[in-house]
Amino acid sequence: MTTRLSDVAARAGVSVKTVSNVINDYPHITSQTRAKVEAAIAALDYKPNVSARSLRKGRSDFIALAIPEMASPYFAELGAAISRAAKRRGITVLIDQTEGEAAAEKLVLDGMRGQLIDGIIFSPITTAPAKIGLADTAKPLVLLGERHPGGHFDHVAVDSVQASFDATTHLISIGRRRIAAIGVGGGAGTGTVRRKGYRKALKAAGLEHDPALELAGTGYHRDDGAASMRELLALPEPPDAVFCFNDLLALGALRTLADAGLSVPGDVAVVGFDDIEDGRYHSPSLTTISPDKEWLAENAVGVLLDRIAGNGAADRRDLTVPYTLQIRESTNG
Amino acid sequence: MTTRLSDVAARAGVSVKTVSNVINDYPHITSQTRAKVEAAIAALDYKPNVSARSLRKGRSDFIALAIPEMASPYFAELGAAISRAAKRRGITVLIDQTEGEAAAEKLVLDGMRGQLIDGIIFSPITTAPAKIGLADTAKPLVLLGERHPGGHFDHVAVDSVQASFDATTHLISIGRRRIAAIGVGGGAGTGTVRRKGYRKALKAAGLEHDPALELAGTGYHRDDGAASMRELLALPEPPDAVFCFNDLLALGALRTLADAGLSVPGDVAVVGFDDIEDGRYHSPSLTTISPDKEWLAENAVGVLLDRIAGNGAADRRDLTVPYTLQIRESTNG
DNA sequence: CCGGATTTCTACAACGATTGACATCGCTTG
DNA sequence: CAAGCGATGTCAATCGTTGTAGAAATCCGG
Fold first, then answer.
1. Rounded CA separation A272/A286 (Å)
2. Predicted TM-score (pTM) of this structure
3. Tens of pLDDT along A156-183?
4. Which residues touch strand D (CB under 7 A)?
């Protein structure tokens, strides 16, 4: 049924070892033999058995990507980019939805799928920094998102403080003075870090920061953004701008503003973070921080594979993803 | 480094096979032995090696899901649902992005990842029906999307003709008479089938169908929808309603309408297909056909696992996914 | 206390690919 | 001509788990 190495060897008239040598690019092989073997491989449509290979070599060429949820556009786009980047290098990505459950995250961290995967790219949401720091993973791990101080893992992320500073400063530059922030309480550290940049920008512009304008919400989805925006509109003195810590929150906020009959950016300007496709097509289109997702994917995979290959004696890597501020209609009607 | 079965056996003072028996729920084991073994497993934090198990058993408990692109919201939501459904049964899903390339689809079909995966759920976009019919896959395969006549695979999908009929009839029922269709040329058969339902509804209502109102476009994304809508608006006699064959097309169309300063549904009513989250939050929110994705996921996985388990002598299964028409602002302002 | 049935457990051989130690064999080369 | 090298083959062991077959332990009625 299944073709195996010995079948190929038989057909090519060589030994099993030689076929294996061809496949694994052993240096000393005549082009003739190589050709014969490759012909046989093609003829029989031979595919090495991944299980057997991985069992013997201890390498599977599979990596895992653990994200909170793949139905969330940012993570979907990220997952797509990472899959592509990995495929380019002959690596397969296994996507793990943690659904923000600490249990699932822990499982991913130490379970590691029965030694199948060679390493993991982890975008935590629940797991506390300390826990991650302690986790003694057998396999290489690259961390996405906010940095966890004291962690000893490689790390790839945008400079959230600076990006948030830029986003807020942009709102100030178009004349807004009462600027709210939505999402200050969410994500593993994300809320805290982005708030830092937000406050810094207010301070730099000589604006007081009003605690009533900082909304935590319960999550990072459209409905959380919509709910937070409703709270803001209910204030005695509503804001004239909102910086939402991700695009989904912003889209939810826009919905609430539309329902309230307010004009964007006329009455309230809105900025998001992530640059997901929905935001580009929304009317009004969404001004947002746009991290270079291809760069992120490429480098996260690169760093992980370096580590797997054992070029890991080197220090912990800490890469900063380039980003731009995409100014669109929601601040520039 | 890695704990293996023999380590557990040594610690529990039994044979390797006995440990294996405990793990695999072999019937005849004393509760004493079982307890000892389980204690040892817990103490050593033993995790079976997936590769070895799969090599020996010929089963990996991995299935693949091949979709055109995971960054597309519908597929992202579907992938999330299928992953969850599989996880509930202890199965891991490997997601394959074919990016609509025939080559990639073929690869998925016969490559089958070196015998690792036990079966595949395939949502084709390029691969011609005939090809699929011929593909002699070694592993069980469940097909999503439009049915391919003559295929010998299990199949799970909504009744697109009926759903499209309903969508179009809804537009007629709110008084529209000049109803366009966007997406008639796309997807592996999708465009054709949905157009069928669309035309059927027009006919049932005694309306002529105008070929100028049927736009093929080049794809199924927002920009395709936006472009098609621009074409429609440029007509001497533009439509008063549009049925878009998926939600992304509809969202693109809405964007064009907003740019043109037209009101929805006042000037033009819009219906989509898929019920992705973006559509629910858009303003105006999008009327759409809402397939029960949980049902779809649950059943696609179920059928595939039945087949893998060998309960497959039975005839080809052909399941129809329940759907509802979600009436929202884009037709009911 | 025995013979046989049953339960509980163990030794051994696979699964398919890789790798290392050697053995060949045919050429080149000093 | 012997040594050296390149290109392949032989053989056996190994990765961790599980199916097969059978051994050992236990139980039963008589």
1. 7
2. 0.92
3. 999 999 999 999 999 999 999 999 999 9
4. A 13-18, 27-30, 32-33, 52, 55-56; B 2, 4-6, 16-17, 20, 23-24, 48-49, 52-53, 55-57
